[in-house]
Amino acid sequence: MAVRGSDAADPLLTYAVVMTAACAAAVWGLWLAVDRYLLRAAETLSREAGLIAHGNAEGAVGGRVPLARYGDLQPIARAVNDLSDKLALVRRDIARTVAESTAKAEEQKTQLAAVLRDLHEGVLVCNTRHQILLYNQTALDILHLTGELGLGRSLLHFVVAEPLTHTLERLSLRVREGRHINHEHGTTAQFVGATTDGRILLEGRMSAILQDPEPGSDETPGINGPIITGYVLTLSDATSELAALGQRDALLREATEGFRAPIANLRAAVETLYDAPDLGPGDRAAFESAMLDSCDSLSRRLEQVTAAYRSIVTGSWPMSDIHSNNLIGLVAHRVGTESPTTVTLTGLPQWVHGDSHGLVLLFAYLIEKVHHLTGATAFDLEAAGPQDGDRWVYLDLVWEGPAVPSATLDGWLEQTLPGGLGGLSAGDVLQHHRSTAWSEPLATSNGTAMRARLRVPLPPAQSPRSALPRPRAGARPEFFDFGLLHQPLATSELGRTPLDRLHYVVFDTETTGLSPSTGDEIIQIAAVRVVGGRILTGETFNTLVDPKRPIPPESVPFHGITDGMVAGQPTIDAVLPQFRGFVSGAVLVAHNAAFDLKFLKMKERAAGVCFDCPVLDTMLLSRMLLGNDGDHTLDGIAERLGIEVVDRHTALGDSLVTAAVFLRMIEMLRERDVRTLDDAIRGANILVELAARERAF
């Protein structure tokens, strides 16, 4: 039985083997057919398509693939031919567009070259690294260069660096703060420079090239977005003009100073003859009369020549209107990079008319001299408005230590100013401004260190447009929230601290409206520090806030802030933590403080902060000092106190005004025996309670 089963299995095994071999042969044959007729053809087609893609078809029809070669792949080959035709058309259109653009660019280049060639001023275009990108032939002539400036070379190889970098700093600061939009000169500034060899004096104008920063770039935009990517420089040769001015300076100086000795001798002779006893009365009287007439004539001539000399010097030197904060900021920057001394910007801003570069050099020079004489390392620099009815704006340099003797200061002014063009002396810079300088000690309280100042009067601005107050629709109404106004006494050491020794932050807000509970939002917060009786103008907080809602058109006249200005600015949730950090450890001061506090308090939870600092309100302090009757608006108080300020009706401007008012009030409160923080809070609370009772009735 076993043998019979084994015999039966042999045909089946043979059949299986035969079928397997047949299947393998069929698969192999199919693979050979696919490889020969499909895969190899597809590879060949792909290579030909690659050749067509890299071809240089100039006509309307591109490279062709022979259809008959590809059998069943003819649809694909036909599609490749269609794509080749379209690619040829695209290449032809691109070539035509490039040719047209090239021709247009060449035409514009020719026109620009013609314009630049015909200009009487030298024109150079540079990037912020002062590398030359474009120039005209006139620039070569003005700089007295026989070759080429060389594209990509630094302009600082040919022109003295300091005036250029200083002017670019001015424009950068103006654009960064957004002031270029409303500034009288926009994005341009004038300067006086010289070639590096000192042979040519240049009068120039720099115009900034603005560009919006690319998204995600590391560039820091200004308030309104754009950054400076380069500048256009126009130059003219001022050598002859300034040389003539120098000659006139020397001539007039000789005329003025040369008159003094003869006049003194003449007066001495008159006095001698007057005392001579041997002349007869008639001769004596005639001689005296003639000599005195001569003296009077010479004196009048001296005064006339002196006045003409100063007029010529001042009228011929390039000057412009300057905001004192910008001027002092540039002084602080220059001193900080070249000296161990520090400069703190204090006081209220003013507008002056002058030579910015010359004044920066002058004050940096004076700070260095005072430092070496007295050892002082910390200086306050502030602008003070006109005093006693005069027209001057005073720039005061203040330090701890003795005043500078007059003879020493006169010697400093006779010396050449480091970095000054044409060998200018410090006294020359003052004469250009029809100014002088003097040093004097300052009155100090008992127990405080000796302080002194060096005062330089400067002409006021001729047309400070941004200094003019913006018309407002009306003053903000007095706002009483008795829960916010009535605050507990600061029972710690802070409450017993005299008011003049506290650290304050004076702040103000601008809002969409007057009702935070119905949806009005903050659109700007600004603040300034007050320490040791000084307004630290250089330590400020100032930011716009996106309210995430439209600004009502009727509120814009109050603050001048539009929807476009706040678009893209941080929201209040992001701003309040930064502001809380700025005011940390300080006593808050505001005018009509309850209004601003209401807005802050309503956003505390969302921002994760708490404003639990002591708060003083200058409106309540005004009522405490002057009674309830009268004008207790910020403008009214400032006018009564004789505080004249610029940049009014902005959050930062109002903060500065409030700070100046508050410092005056501290002196007045001391006379009322209100000396400490607790005294001031106690008096304010009494006024709040009285106001609450009046409203209850």
Automatic annotation (TrEMBL):
Annotated ranges, domain Exonuclease: 503-671
UniProt-listed InterPro entries: DnaQ, PAS, PAS-like_dom_sf, Ribonucl_H, RNaseH-like_sf, RNaseH_sf
A Pfam family assignment: RNase_T
Record bears the keyword Transcription regulation: no
The EC number(s) this enzyme carries: 2.7.7.7
Assembly and interaction partners: DNA polymerase III contains a core (composed of alpha, epsilon and theta chains) that associates with a tau subunit. This core dimerizes to form the POLIII' complex. PolIII' associates with the gamma complex (composed of gamma, delta, delta', psi and chi chains) and with the beta chain to form the complete DNA polymerase III complex.
Protein's name in the database: DNA-directed DNA polymerase
Native organism: Azospirillum ramasamyi
High-level lineage: Bacteria, Pseudomonadati, Pseudomonadota, Alphaproteobacteria, Rhodospirillales
